[in-house]
Amino acid sequence: MNYEDARKYIDSIARFGSKLGLENIRNLMGYLGDPQKKLKFVHVAGTNGKGSTVAFLCSILKSAGFRTGMYTSPFVERFSERIRVNGEEIGEEDFARLATQVKEAAGRMKEEGKGEPTEFEIITAIAFLYFYEKRCDICVLEVGLGGRLDATNVINDPLVCMITPISCDHTDILGNTPEKIAYEKAGIIKEGSTVLIHPQETGVMAVIERVCLEKKAKPVICSLPEGPTKAGIDGVDFYYEGNEYHTGLLGDYQINNAAMSVSAARILQKKGFDIKEEDIKNGLSSAEWKGRFELIRKEPYVLIDGSHNVSGMERLASSLGLYFKDTRIILIIGILKDKDYGKMLDIILPLAKTVYTVTVPSDRTLTADELLAEVLKRTDVCAQAVPDPVSAYEMAVKKAGSTDIICACGSLYYIGLIRKAVLHDDDEFRHAASDVNGHVEDF
Prior knowledge:
By secondary structure, the protein is of the alpha/beta class. The chain folds into two domains: about 280 residues, Mur-like, catalytic domain (UDP-N-acetylmuramoyl-L-alanine:D-glutamate ligase), CATH 3.40.1190.10; about 140 residues, Mur ligase, C-terminal domain (Protein-Tyrosine Phosphatase, Chain A), CATH 3.90.190.20. It is about 40% helix and about 15% strand. It has 15 helices and 17 strands. Strands 4-3-2-5-1-6-7-8 form an eight-stranded mixed sheet, with helices on both faces. It has a six-stranded mixed sheet with strand order 12-13-17-14-15-16. Helix 8 links the parallel strand 7 and strand 8. It is globular and about 60 Å long.
């Protein structure tokens, strides 16, 4: 297969849905020689902050000289963003070659009556093969969905298990209470492992600690910074455990994700990884992560944020208040229909002076018209349905003054389309963009 054939193959699998469970991925990896058993991992689960935490930690490890694999989902602009080594995305030839290997293994599985792998399992297998080929010193994995039955949980003996903030999302799959969801996320905890935990509400923490006790794992509660010492559109400065750090990732919540990565790095130090304080500072400062309170244009300011649940929308609103106090925004918003869109709208609409609702490119979307009806129930500001996200952005720019703020949010599915449109037109922020967002497991 070439790259285009490989993508078509994966998309064809996606049409048949996905399922949770480890039997398929164990069988598939067995046919491929179990490369994951020859690698070292940090495993990251949670509801919010997983991707940013992974990005911070990978940047630290790269700064320390380690060949670092990074596996995340979803992607914002290009499918290859999901699989990287030292920040470099997997190439099309490598992806096609490894996808061919995995397809052949999946065919043998089916012929021998051992099941058929899902889309996410196929992509996960490609990632493991790639990391093994590249001789990665360490790989940082973001869970796709949940944790206990997620395909990434096929790994054994992670160096560190990390659990970021947990809240209600994917309740139809993971459970309808934070405690049930916490049980699924805590499923990444292995016997005798070290578990770094972001502070959680009481019930959630009790679940995680109980699983740690059952698995004889060592829980480490991450301390958090009290707040940024300086915050502007060029980045955030903060103190953490006696040291001063800087990150270019905006959002008042990012310093907590940074603190998690610092704590993980210090755990890895104790496990024999040569990570200096200078590496931590350089890693935090140079970390990049698309689509999370990301400023992609000035005059007018354009922000994209992948907040796709209630907790994420609360963090977005808080960050807008920090960076753009007393400024009402031109809001572009698209939301999937299986999200708690009512509460999400209640949080963000009071900040808006104009609203454009869009249709997210997913069969799970609320249409722009359906979302507009929900908006009009809650606000009397000017609102309009513009199904195409890029058209909505173009209309917003025409309406905006040079000091206005355009914020696109509500789903990671569509903000990449706006990111491409903006950065293609603006030389100051130009990036390559050649792919279209497609199927992902968890967002």
